[in-house]
Amino acid sequence: MSLNSREDLANRRSRAVKTAWLLGLIAAGIFVAFVLSGVLGH
Amino acid sequence: MSIETTHSHDESHDDHHDHAPSGFLDRWLFTTNHKDIGTLYLVFSLLMFFIGGSMAMIIRAELFMPGLQLVEPDFFNQMTTMHALIMVFGAVMPAWVGFANWMIPMMIGAPDMALPRMNNWSFWILPFAFTMLLSTLFMDSGGPAAGWTLYPPLSLQGGQSFAFVVFAVHMMGISSIMGSINVIATILNMRAPGMTLLKMPLFVWTWLITAFLLIAVMPVLAGAVTMLLTDHFFGTSFFNAAGGGDPVMFQHIFWFFGHPEVYIMILPAFGVVSEIIPTFARKPLFGYTAMVYATASIAFLSFIVWAHHMFTVGMPLTGELFFMYATMLIAVPTGVKVFNWVSTMWRGSMTFETPMLFAIGFVVLFTIGGLSGLMLAIAAVDLQYHDTYFVVAHFHYVLVPGAVFALMAGTYYWLPKWTGHMYSEKWGKIHFWVSTISVNILFFPQHYLGLAGMPRRIPDYSTQFADFNMISSIGGFIFGASQLIFVGVIVHCVYKSRKAATAQVWEGARGLEWTLSSPPPYHSFNTPPPINASTVAHADEAH
Ligand code: HEM
Ligand SMILES: [Cu+2]
C-alpha cells in the first residue's frame, strides 16, 4: 500500500477514530467512577 | 474530511492550489481546517483575555484604596470568581489549543488534525459556554461568587444562576476533552513517516502530555460540579454535612483536577519556550531527551500533590508530610528544565528579538513563581500563607509572566509564519518592556501583602496594607493598558505590515513549519515531507 494513497489515508483515519473512541470512553469512565464514588461513599 | 480534500499529486510546494472557501460562514462557521480553527481559538482567547482583564481592572480599582468605593462586596466576589474562570478556561486554555491546532500538524508533517469535524465542534462549543457563563452576571442571583474553586457550602448559597455556571463548565470540559482527543489521535496517527516520537518538537511533546492530563482530569471536574448541581437543586448531600456528606471531599476532588490543571496551563508554555530559545541562541536545545522525561515526570507528579492546596483542612500528619515532599519533588524536573534552557543559551550567539525577550522573561519570572511555590509547599508555614495574597502572588507569577508570557512569545515567534508579514519589532519590544516592568509592580508587592497577613478575595482591607495595594493597582493599570500595544502590533502585522516574511523567518529556526512558505498554503503537507537532519527541529539525532 503506497504512502498517502487513498487506502493509506483511510487506514490512518480509522486508526485515529479508534484512538478517539478509546480516549472518549476513558474520559466517560473517569466521570462515572468519580460520581459513583460520591454516590456509594455514603 | 481531508480524505476528500487530499489529491494524490504533489502540491506541498504549491501555494495556490487550493484556497479557503470564499463565503464568510463557509470559511469560519463550517471550517474543518486546522489553521482556520487555530485562528478562531486564538481570536476567541484574545477576546476573553480582555473580558477577564477588565474584571481584573475592576478588582484592582476597588483595592486601590482601603474602604469600599466602587462596587458592592458581592459584585466584587463575582468579579474575582469570573476573572479566574474566564482567564483559566476561556483565555489560557483555548489559546494553547489554538497554538496546537496551528502548529502540531505543521510540526509533524500532517495535512490536518486527525478529526477535523470534531475539531470544528470543539471550538464552536466555547462561545456558547462563555456567553452562558457571562450571562449569569445579568441574572437576578448574579454570577458565581464563591471563587473559581467553587467550594461548598459557599458555592451552594447562590441562586438559580448556578445551574448555568455548571452547564457552562460541562461544555468547556467537553470542548477540552474533544480537543485533547484530537491532539492525541493526531500525534499518534498522523506523523509523517520518519518523524519518530523522539524527533518531535518539544511543543508537540508537551502538548501530547498535556492532552493526557486533560483527559484524565476534566471528567473529574465534571463529576465535581455535577454533584454540586444535584446538591443545590435536587436535594442530594454529597458535600452537605447535615445530610451526611463531606464538604472537604469536594476539595479533594476539585484539587485532584485543579493541580494537574495548573500544569495543563504551563506545560505547553514549556514547549514554546523550548522552541524559541534554541532559535535565538542558534544552538540546539540542550538535553532534548531530558526535557521530554522532565515533562512526563512533572505530569506524573502533578497527580499526587493535590492536597498541598488543603494543608489547613486538618489532615493527618502523615498526609501533610506526604503531600509536602511530593510537591517539593516537582521542583526537581522543573529545575532540570530551567537548567537546560540556561545551558542552551550558554555560549550561544544570542539575539534578542521580541519572542526571545518574552522567552527569557518567562524563564526568570516563572522561576520566581516556582520558588514561592516551594515556600508554600512547606506545610508548616503554609498554615500562615494559605488564603493570603502570598498565594495570589505565587500563582500570578507562574501564570502571567509564566503562561501568558509564553503565549506572547509564541505569538511573536509564529505570527510572521501565520500571516506572511513581519510585525513591528520596535513596538514588540516596547510591549515587552512595559509588560515586564508593570507585571512586577503589579505582583511583587503582593508577596509582602500576603506575608503581612492580607487575605485573598476581599474587597476591603485594613489600612496597614494601603501602600502596597496602591502600588500593585498602579502596576495593574499599566499592565492592562500595555496589552493594547499587543493588539496594535497584531492588527498592524495582519492588515498593514508590508514587510514580507521569508519561509524560515528567523535565521536560527529549525523544524518542518519553517520549510513551508509564510503564510503556509491553506492545505499543507498533503504529501508527507522528508524527515532528515535539516527538517527535524531539535532532536539530538539531528545535530
Ligand atoms: C515548583 C512548582 C510549584 C509548587 C511547589 C507550587 C506549590 C503551590 C502550593 C503549595 C499552593 C497552595 C498554596 C495555598 O493555597 O496555601 C499553590 C497554589 C497555586 N499554584 Fe502553585 N506551585 C508550583 C507551580 C505552579 C504552577 C506552574 C502553576 C500554574 C501555572 C501554579 C498555579 C497555582 C495556582 C493557580 C494556585 C492557587 C490556587 C487557588 O487556591 O486558587 N503553581 N502552589
Ligand atoms: Cu497545586
Q: For the CA atoms, what is the radius of gyration of chain B?
A: 23 Å
Uncertain residue segments of chain B: 1-17
Cofactors, ions and other ligands in the entry:
protoporphyrin IX containing FE, copper (II) ion
The quaternary state of the protein chains shown equals: heterodimer
Average pLDDT of chain B: 94
Fraction of residues in helix of chain A: over 70%
Overall pLDDT score of chain A: 84
Helical residue percent band of chain B: 55-70%
Biggest chain-to-chain interface with counts = A-B, 26 and 38 residues
> Total strand count of chain A, please?
0
Order of helices and strands of chain B: HHHHHHHHHHHHHHH
What is the 3D shape of chain A? rod-shaped
Radius of gyration of chain A over alpha carbons?
A: 18 Å
Tally of separate helices of chain B: 15
Determine the strand fraction of chain B and express it as a percent band: under 5%
Termini Cα gap of chain B: 37 Å
Strand content of chain A: under 5%
Order of helices and strands of chain A: H
Number of helices of chain A: 1
**Largest sheet of chain A at a glance?**
none
Describe this structure in words.
- The complex is a heterodimer of chains A (42) and B (543).
- In chain A, 19% of the residues are buried.
- Chain A has one helix spanning 6-40.
- Chain A has one domain.
- With 42 residues, chain A is mostly helical.
- Chain B has 543 residues and is mostly helical.
- Chain B is built from 15 helices and no strands.
- In chain B, helix 3 runs antiparallel to helix 4.
- Chain B is globular and about 65 Å long.
- Chain B starts with a helix and ends in a 47-residue tail after the last helix.
- Chains A and B meet through helix 1 of A and helix 6 and helix 7 of B.
- Bound molecules: protoporphyrin IX containing FE and copper (II) ion.
- Copper (II) ion is lined by residues 259, 262, 305, 308-309 of chain B.
- Copper (II) ion binds next to helix 8 of chain B.
